[in-house]
Amino acid sequence: MSINDTSAVMKQYATAEKLNARISIHSKYSTNRQGFGNWITSNYEIREGMAVLELGCGTGEMWAGKNGMISRCSRFVLSDFSEGMLEKAGETLRGYEGIEYRVIDIQDIPFEDHSFDIVIANMMLYHVPDPDRALREVRRVLKEGGAFYCATFGEHGMMEYIAGLFRDRQVHHQVNDSFTLQNGAEKLKTVFPDVRRLLYEDALEVTDVEDLADYIESLTGMSDLQKIPREEVCAVLKKNMQDGVLHIPKEYGMFIAR
Question: What burial letters (b/e) apply to 39-51, b meaning 16+ CB within 10 Å?
């Protein structure tokens, strides 16, 4: 099964359960208390009257408490490939005014050319079967001078570290390197003349390995590790703790393309 297999992605994100497992470990154990979502939105330059489109909005949690930012927009569209995820976003942001919800495939955006001042696609481009086509679609719907914000992960972060703990058990993690902090700029520059990379300094300090086991079970790129009984996984994780803490490096950031 390809990491970018559309049916696999649909299954993974049909509901918010697995995504919530991944979000919760970051909110509980991240050393950077600003939070990745808050850091991402702090870099948005949304001015009065702008039209904004987010692709792959997930649960919408990133916009909770950002009503002032939303209210500045002349048009604000949250979209996702998954109907179930979009329903969850509607629940998360119930009571917020001025939000349109649309089921959209980033490879075929159903809006006219030059419709939006800002387009956002966080932590999702690596799932897209044809990222080059997706980027061309984003550029098409952006107004001249508009900005594209896209967060992603690096190739040497959490999954590489976790897989390394189980190297003697022949565990290999599938690196989804179709759009990372290492190669994202090169891909974006085929469509956008101005690309800037920002890095988010963070790590995990996990004190309950059961939470980390839940995280591992939610991942699509850890099939080797998921074949090992959970109690054995937890035992290895505990063995690598120091003073009751398992320190795990993270590599996250974002690109701003214009």
Answer: bbbeebebeeebb
